[in-house]
């Protein structure tokens, strides 16, 4: 048969030709090098797999009729016979197909070049030179995916993009692995709500995953890696040698989970990769009304995470829809069961090796049952973690002390500077923010009008956020304005937005935007008003007011009566009383406007008489009116007579004790979604009020942590009628980070705020029924009648664990600036 040429030789030939400008030779040899490398790899895998079948352990020693029980040496012989046969089988198989065993050995350096996809860099130039544009683009793209910091290639790609005759489909990844390609395709269909297609691709992905896994694992059975040892000095007895090598092999096999979850262009592997397939699948099947399959996949997912609450809920729901007697016999997938069993056995051996010989093993999986790790090791890890947390805390405290010292120093020097430095007109942190009017121009003090604080897109996104949140019907919709009966009023706080984001009702991304932009406004105020001490958020509210068309006839009132934000204005007396119920701790206010397509709605500053207007501001997107919250700044809003006026109202305090608790909670939640911590979310007990009803299934909750669009969830006929009210939650929308139920990007366990669903009457348990078994841990179910408003959703809070894990640094992302050039 045909024996492939060694690929290191081909690579060298190609590189040589490159410098001679012999493009065809470059292409010929480089393409062959890539092909042969792949061939070597797959032949090796095939040989080992077929030899494993031919000489499987576990059979009786051939040639011996009975292996006498208790006779160790005969059984040992049986084992070693298999080992020898396997070695022989693999050897002759490989020699047959690849030639001498050393022929395809290459240096580590060359191996690295292939890992870095360097051949495609050469190919790209060669294809370009001979005018094979589509291939040049594919090669360039393939290379760039593995080298996202490569400036030249980025420029090349930009250039290709502008060229006539280059198509979007040309930007291929020629090294894409089938299982990953299918998974990514599945994800993108899933994000588009094309659940049928998504399921198809996820199924192929699963199949390909197991093929790739088999191959990856068997390729681990390579040479022993002396790695750092001087192998001349390495002397170990038979069993130690075998152990050392075998542990290395097992470690490598375990690492396949990471290998398979990684792809060029992502700096981190997908977390919980294999289980997530079944998570996506169950929801895709549910949406395609294939309940048997949904049940199968939910059960398969539960093999990995038997206690996953959301999945158990989903399973219960699907089972109820299908009928329990039909649902019960449906089994989880056998391949997965075997895979888990095998993997756990491997882990146990590895942990044994860890304990006995100190051979390190870091479990790559998140689903491993706790007791697989030996207790001693578990305790040690816990102790280590606690030590790390303590050190982090101590460092934190030290830093704080130093900060205070520095602050005090600064204060000392600025106290003197105070006399000459004006209290306003400080620099703004962002170049794009402009001071449109100073306090003087606004005829007052402690006032400023800024423009360009946020972009048009951001304005629109926030306005959409407000409207989606309002649509949710949590008591905002249709509620008349507290200030004017001629307007409708809807408001959402940061925490509310984040919770709705977590649920998938609004895009989480928008909630984050709300959070981040208010931070930006705060910074702008701090620097413009030259504050020495930081501002703290006291309250943040995204507010839209809409004119009620039929109630505009000769209205005289304001949309928001003239008031002062931190005292009670008694305009008759020209006085402002700084006492509760006024929010006396508020020190600064800022209103960030989002739009101007409405009539009326001007913001006005007045004298203490609430009548004499001293300045007027017309809202528009990106504009901020910032002002001291005290009696120097009475203000109000003129009637909105047409359209909807949206703004983010922010109040700040200098007193950290009055910092908005909700905001801290929102911050924690947002952190949880984006940092690599494994912290658990636990239920807010106060909110988990309803009683558990284990027999009443919840509709599938699909918390997406990516962003969700505003589109309403589809109505599915099989879902109990009332459940349709807020539907199964939107599927993953964020194209890049589509995620199935209840998982963060990082695999941190997040409890999706379950949808509070109303149930059809026959499935409803009476609200008052108590079974005495309730615990806060148990799923709180809605006991609801038709037309009853859903009860408060459970909220989640962060478990204590997270600090110790904050130390994990985020990896650099693909969008980091390029670092250095690589020349051909
Ligand atoms: O929306 C505005 O322009 C001002 C609102 C305001 O002053 C307030 O809510 O306290
Ligand atoms: Fe106000």
Structure summarized in a few sentences:
Helix content is 44%, strand content 10%. The chain has helices at 7-20, 23-54, 72-98, 108-115, 118-129, 133-146, 151-162, 178-191, 195-219, 238-261, 273-287, 291-304, 309-322, 324-327, 334-357, 375-417, 456-471, 494-503, 508-528, 661-674, 802-806; strands at 434-437, 447-451, 487-493, 536-547, 560-563, 568-570, 575-577, 588-593, 598-600, 603-606, 613-617, 624-628, 635-637, 640-653, 681-683, 796-798.
Structure description:
The structure is a single chain. A hairpin with a 4-residue loop joins β6 and β7. The strands form four sheets. Strands 1, 2, 3, 4, 8, 9, 12 and 14 form an eight-stranded antiparallel beta sheet that branches. The chain has a four-stranded antiparallel beta sheet with strand order 5-13-10-11, with no helix packed on it. Mean pLDDT is 77; it is low at 63-67, 416-422, 473-478 and 675-824. Helix content is 44%, strand content 10%. By secondary structure, the protein is an alpha+beta fold. The relative contact order is 0.08. α8 (178-191) packs antiparallel against α9 (195-219), α9 (195-219) packs antiparallel against α10 (238-261) and α12 (291-304) runs antiparallel to α13 (309-322). The longest helix has 43 residues, at 375-417. Bound molecules: 2-oxoglutaric acid and fe (iii) ion.
